[in-house]
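name: query_chain
kind: protein
chains: 1
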Amino acid sequence: MNEFSRRMLLAGAGAGLLTRPALAAPVAAPVAAPVAAPMASAGASGTWNREAFLDAMAKSGRPTEISEASFQAIQARKPMMMKRIEQYLKEKLGSADPAVLAAFQDLPRDYYHYLYDARKSSAYEAYDEAAKPWVIGYGSVLSDYLGQAYMTQVAKPQPGETSLEIGTGSGFQSSVLSRIVGKAYSIEIIEPVGKAVAKIFAPIGLDNIETRVGDGYYGWPEVTGGFDIIIVTCTAQYVPKTFFEQMKPGARLLIPIGQPFKRGHILYVYTKDADGKIHSRRDIGMYFIPFKGQMEKTPAPANTPT
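structure:
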């Protein structure tokens, strides 16, 4: 864990931390006898159990060990997370999209909790009742699950659509989108994270995600026709022109905007109408790690929509 990541966690700040009223923390369910949780993308068995976890971790280049009791203790806390997500979405957005809830239920978040620089699993943190970001190494952060659920529902993903995430991180956000849309793309600028995370999707059957290491400032122009959703999981100082160019008519762009390392970041939601006109609205306060790369070198264009 580098010093920046340590300071972020000590301060309770990090990727995806939303400004929100406190929620009463549900009591975690008691540890039950081992039961395989349903998992549509866990392979031929269709279950997520200790054996599936260990097998997927090994195939993704992150071999680890965990006892049956420890694995079951982790899984027993997932219902608490799901209850909090549903409660939060209803509170903030009026309802909880069943497709978003199903995506979170389907994915084993414990599989994504990993410290890449230390090369060790942090699965025990996956369903922490205090929703907060967790470092995954090399200055990258796994966003809190409430923030990820909120941004996913605001993005309004639909079957058959194409999404682009700027800032792959742990890979969880694009995995959630991939359970709903037809194709999910994601770009990560931190090379050791991007290369390692690219290996985690296939072992759990996620075959509609494509990632690459690069500067998200330029989007992914090679994708013919552009994107229905662009979701940015790092705080930008402004919106790169390339994002607007790569939005399809009807597309949604979610991007946190603010100054690096300072509070006051705001999630902006942009839409493109059938005539190609861009519309915007301020949404909720959040805090993410900074948008790196060309963003840091290029001043905002004078005609950037606000």
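note: The two ends are 36 Å apart (CA to CA).
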